[in-house]
Amino acid sequence: MNATNAFPIGTPGQPWGDVEKRQWLEQTTIKRSYSEEVVPKIQALSSDFEVAQYGQLQYDNNPVGESRYPLFVLKSKTWNDAKPTILITGGVHGYETSGVHGALLFAQTEAARYQDKFNIVIAPCVSPWGYETINRWNPDALDPNRNFVANSPAQESAAVMKMVADLGVSILAHIDLHETTDTDELEFRPALAARDGIEYLKGSIPDGFYTVGDTEKQDDELQKAIINSVRKVTHIAPADENNQIIGSDVTQDGVINYPLVTLGLCAGFTDCQYCTTTEVYPDSPKVTDDECNRAQVAAITGALDYILAR
Questions:
Q1: Structure confidence by residue, pLDDT tens digits, 182-192
Q2: What are the Peptidase M14 domain coordinates in residue numbering (predicted)?
Q3: Residue 150 contacts by C-beta under 8 Å, 6 or more apart in sequence?
């Protein structure tokens, strides 16, 4: 690994204040449209799901993008409290494109096969501002996927947590759809180090799909089922020379584990029995955007088929 402090905002060794956060925000730009690329796909599913607005992001002093973003959830029309409930989240990091469109593709193509067994809840784009700016953070320079905590300061995280609490049911399984991209090392991790006033240690990006399970609820068989389902669509990330992926020990082919609740990660907030975070690598020369979306679908179906077989 190489140490560097190359991020252009802030003073090395000093955490950002309001001035630096504003400088970071003002250098972001809108690159695509949530209202044109995502919302119509959500609304088009109204014949198969109940489409509901569960909240609205409000960034009144945001100079980049909209000041308000409606947040939508898809819920089974055949809801029955006696059935177990499955939660699928995408776009917690808005820049991770296949998380959003993979969730919607599952709703379009595969969800009907599971509606008689499960209540299905899908929040396909948790962070629409991040989607539009292709960003990991929200306008407050907060990472929603480190803020699934009580009294969350991240609007995106707080809104999803409230929506799930308002369902009034236990969540059996939570599948959180993510990507690991080249920009994680080129932009987002250097920005994180600069924001927090710490040294950036360069890492490496694995070429392929992997999952992140829960250290506190390690379920090797669930993760194995997901990996085996996804490998029919795309390749699985190999371990590095230290038998690690992004600095964490590989427990089996394509699987690492994090303490999800401790880190405030999305997949940990529901206290569910079955959970996973998927990680697609869209920058690989071996894949297309369609394959990335289908890999997310395969991860969901692999998990649900495993649960049904229990």
A1: 999 999 999 99
A2: 30-310
A3: none
* Phi-psi group of 180: left, alpha or beta (phi > 0 → left; psi -120 to 50 → alpha; rest → beta): beta
CA quadruple 9, 11, 15, 21: dihedral sign: negative
Buried b (16+ CB within 10 A) or exposed e, 145-180: bbbbbeebebbbbbbbbebbeebeeebbbbbbbbbb
- In the chain, the amino acid numbered 117 is K
Cα dihedral sign for 211, 217, 221, 225? negative
**Both ends of the chain: CA-CA distance in Å?**
43
Please indicate, yes or no, whether the overall pTM of this predicted structure exceeds 0.90.
Answer: yes
Distance of CA 212 to the CA centre of its chain: 11
Rg (CA), the chain: 19
CATH C-level class of 3-308: alpha beta
- pLDDT digits 0-9 by tens, 135-154: 999 999 999 999 999 999 99
3-state SS, the chain, equals CCEECCCCCCCCCCCCCHHHHHHHHHCCCCCCCHHHHCHHHHHCCCCCEEEEEEEEEECCCCCCCCCEEEEEEEEECCCCCCCCEEEEEECCCCCCHHHHHHHHHHHHHCHHHHCCCCEEEEECCCCHHHHHHCCCCCCCCCCHHHCCCCCCCCHHHHHHHHHHHHHCCCEEEEEEEEECCCHHHHHHHHHHHHHHCCCEECCCCCCCEEEEEEHHHCCHHHHHHHHHHHCCCCCECCCCCCCEECCEECCECCEEEECCCCCCCHHHCCCCCEEEEEEECCCCCCCCHHHHHHHHHHHHHHHHHHHHCC
